Fold:
Amino acid sequence: MKKVLSVLLAVALCAASLVSFTSCGDTQSDGKYTIGICQLMEHVALDAATEGFKQAVIDELGAENVEFDVQNGQGDPATCSTIANQFVSNNVDLIMANATPALQSAAAATGDIPILGTSVTEYGVALELKDFNGTVGGNISGTSDLAPLDLQAAMITEWCPEANKVGLLYCSKEANSQYQVDVVKAELEKKGLEATLYPFTDSNDLAQICTTAADNSDVIYVPTDNTVAENTGIIDNICEPKKIPVIAGEEGICSGCGIATLSISYYDLGYTTGKMAVKILRDGADISTMPIEYAEKQTPKYNTQNCEALGITPLEGYVAIEAE
Structure:
């Protein structure tokens, strides 16, 4: 009898183990996936990247086979951390981190779940990687929204050929913004221009710093910066009355306060990120070997309303930003 009981117990334990093993792999074994999306905040560029990402995944996997848990960080890195940790607790199959603070939060939360970033300018800076060669390694990859900074610097002299003083306005808490303005500053100084950094810490001191920049500059450059994107009205209300043109790092910011930009499509960038997700989830691609991908093309664009307000004639080869 003891021998029979032992055999039955062994069979029961084996069956329980099998059930447990099967349940852990349910989402992948039946072709259904849960993806956690942490978006830093709501604004045009990030919204477009999220929509592009979702559409790419749906196009490849089918809407019935994927569940998106979309969470908004409300511009707060601490909230992004809470969201990322919740995704880990829920054992999602993949995390899409939209913007640098969201990526940093996800990276701190897990070293196992695949993480794809998007709307991240420079991964080496964002993740404090030494000798970054284009591939993060580990459980992280994604797409970058970086448009060529040397071309952005050239835009400043093309649009404002008589300018001597350039103010570079950015949020000092955003590492990628610091990277962009440092590069643009160096490029402008090569051209013999005086380039001055005007960092602000958050929206509370933006107006003060922007006023100082406008009072001491012939033209202002703002990089791809999440805090700027959320507060373009402040910049526009200060710079337009003072007749100070603003060159922007991306289209959403340019729509709010700029005259011109070298724009990428954030929807397309998100779509590319979604295709990367499919390669990982369905095709079994190794994320540790996937290099960061970039926007395939950039389009020079101008803001019709702001150009008219400042009496600036748009340059040839630039496309008007479509009004929403």
